[in-house]
Design brief:
The chain is α+β, with helices and mostly antiparallel strands and about 350 residues long. Helices cover about 35% and strands about 20% of the residues. The strands form three sheets. A five-stranded antiparallel β-sheet has the order 10-9-8-11-12. Strands 4-7-5-6 form a four-stranded antiparallel β-sheet, covered by helices on one side. The longest helix has 17 residues, at about 265-280.
């Protein structure tokens, strides 16, 4: 078993029946009613390798994991044989509140679960709602607006360049290099593309040209802590034009390089981490999340979005990559998430 890292609580050491909630990409791809749509429509869903890695980590920690899946399968299993704890990274499907499906079932049935509650998961998936909450806490966000078609663009009072994103998708779905635009005609094309492909409103923002940083956070409330911050730097594109797009993420080894810690001066790095931790708390994230931050032209950190269900593929998940760069193993990440949930639910008493 891996050695415990500082900050993990050795007293929280029960051996639990832990159900794993997840949605597999291959299972959704096999559903004929989902055959149409953009080529990234299953981008946020997990592989068997990720589920296997989480199960193996839980076993190494002495727990008894079992695969529950997601959707109806999860509900049926939860009713028939409720676990002592659900390790939840199910993305859900079909609605803008889809990430809230599994935790809502858990709350209704009184089953403890890891990660954030339904309200936080629904609020963070909608990028505009998340920005509204973070801005209300006094934190910097890029200026932007939600539009429901190209006809609404003429009324926008935003600077150029701009970026257009689907309002409630994750894993860079819909975000391409072409999403950064410099004129009205290009913006109209992007908004039309996103509206047609995803059938949802579009978030248009002023594009931030500075360094992009993603910040991993573990824990709850005042005990939440930054694991590490990681700069996402382009190998090919100019930094001022760089978009952490789907094309980049699918070819990340050739398109980007990761720097832990980021290549920022000490004061700016502290500001980035403070912003990320403050956003985590404002959104009431629990146990774990990854917060994306980007600097504006003046070097001011701005909140971009929050991912309270960060990818847990041990090789490619940004949280796993940044944790590994500071010597925290995958098993230790899983341990920290589980122990935070155990403490929250008072399961170790």
């Amino acid at each position: 078993m891996s050695a415990r890292r500082p900050g993990l609580n050795p007293r929280l050491d029960p051996r639990l029946d832990i159900g794993i909630a997840f949605d597999l990409k291959r299972e959704l791809e096999a559903r004929p009613e989902l055959a149409r749509g953009p080529d990234d429509r299953f981008e946020e869903y997990d592989s068997d390798a990720t589920v296997d890695a989480v199960a193996a980590a839980l076993s190494e920690l002495g727990h008894h994991p079992r695969r529950m899946g997601g959707g109806r399968k999860f509900v049926e299993e939860a009713l028939a044989r409720p676990p002592e704890l659900v390790f939840n990274f199910a993305e859900g499907h079909g609605t803008r509140s889809r990430e809230a499906h599994v935790p809502a079932v858990c709350e209704m049935l009184g089953i403890p679960f890891t990660h954030s509650d339904p309200l936080t998961l629904a609020a963070t998936l909608d990028k505009s709602v998340a920005k509204t909450i973070v801005a209300a806490a006094g934190l910097a966000v890029p200026r932007g607006a939600v539009v429901r078609g190209a006809r609404e663009l003429a009324a926008l009072d935003l600077g150029w360049p701009r970026i257009a994103k689907p309002l409630f998708e994750g894993s860079s779905m819909g975000v391409r290099r072409s999403s950064r635009v410099e004129d009205a005609a290009a913006l109209a094309r992007e908004v039309e593309r996103l509206s047609n492909d995803y059938g949802e409103p579009v978030l248009v923002e002023e594009f931030l040209e500075g360094t992009e940083v993603t910040v991993g956070i573990l824990g709850n409330g005042p005990r939440a802590r930054v694991v590490a911050a990681m700069e996402v730097a382009p190998k090919v594109d100019d930094q001022k034009r760089f978009v952490y797009s789907l094309e980049v993420k699918r070819d990340w080894e050739n398109q980007v390089e990761y720097h832990v810690p980021p290549r920022l001066d000490a004061g700016t790095l502290r500001a980035v981490e403070t912003l990320a931790l403050s956003a985590y708390r404002a959104l009431e994230c629990r146990d774990v999340a990854r917060i994306d931050v980007r600097l504006d032209r003046a070097g001011r950190p701005c909140f971009i979005e929050a991912n309270p269900l960060p990818g847990l593929n041990p090789r490619t998940g940004d949280l796993c990559v940044l944790a590994g760069r500071v010597g925290i193993s995958f098993v230790e990440i899983v341990r920290a998430i589980v122990e935070a949930a155990i403490e929250r639910h008072n399961l170790g008493a």
